[in-house]
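Hey everyone, long-time lurker, first post.

I ran two proteins through the pipeline my lab uses and got sequence/structure pairs for each. Pasting them in order. The first:
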Amino acid sequence: MNSSTNQDLDQLNKFLRGEMSATETYEQCMDKIDDSAIERELRSLKTSHATRATMLRAKVNALGGDADDSAGIWGGFAKLVEGGAKLLGKSAAISALEEGEDHGLAMYRDNLEDLTPTTQQFVRTELLPEQKRTHDALSRLQNQV
């Protein structure tokens, strides 16, 4: 593998760890929500992150790499968020999720130019629009809570 492919694989695995962490965090926060409409919306957003994780795994494998199977340090962040949500309730859980969405959007945007053109196109067309959608949906939800 050449260095450009290795760089793409490293970055795609970082994106993957972020998506796995987002999925875990949504799951943990949904346990704290007693409003069925909000819980349905969060489940939909969690599914979007899980779908992106699946797409990233497939892309890493297609490039000849090994997809990460753990959120790593991001999983630790998910556990920390869960602890805060248990103590502070629904509003804190939604706020923590929105912070995660902000981070995810920035992560995709800030690292786009470091990728090869083909991988940039994948991120631009397959991942970034959906990350923007989940980010915006959670921002609207936070304004309602």
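...and the second, right after it:
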Amino acid sequence: MAFITPMEIIDIIIMTFAIGYIFSGFFKRTPHEGYDPIKYFSKSLGWENIKFAAMIAAPAVILHELAHKFVAMSYGAIAVLKAPYLMYAIVIALRAMNFPLIFFVGGYVAHTPLPALPSAWIALAGPLTNFMIWGLIRLAVKNNVLKKYHNILVPMGKLNLFLAVFNMLPIPGFDGFHFFQGLFRAFI
């Protein structure tokens, strides 16, 4: 099986644009110091906000899902990353109507069945990746590394921490549920 298939690359591109649009209301590009207001407001602010939100949110979701995929593959499973097109259509329609709260699945990985313990580690891989990204960003910000990009790194770090904690809730369908279910099945 290929490491990443052409269809998965297409899904990642679609995920990036969909996530950018969905999060563009939450993460908006602010003008830099000394900006030219005429140039700033003559640009398409919508497209600028979509690009800015995609830079912040898409890596969190895509790397989370790729972690699931690669851990599943390390256990010998056939794993495929997929974009949930119907979910995107619903959430994009709600976002276009200025719906106040949006919950959605950013992507998912389908894999061949595995024993309980490997399944638990696969479920943990995504949130653990978000925790690691948050930790690296926190270190970078604390030590003033990449100071020029703090306007992107700070919200990216907060989003990764949120995704890690939120996904570990033991609610059916969430990674936390699958992780604890796998541990329970493996040891009890």
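Reply from user beta_strand_b:
Welcome! Quick read of the second one: The chain has seven helices and two strands. Residues 6-187 form one domain.
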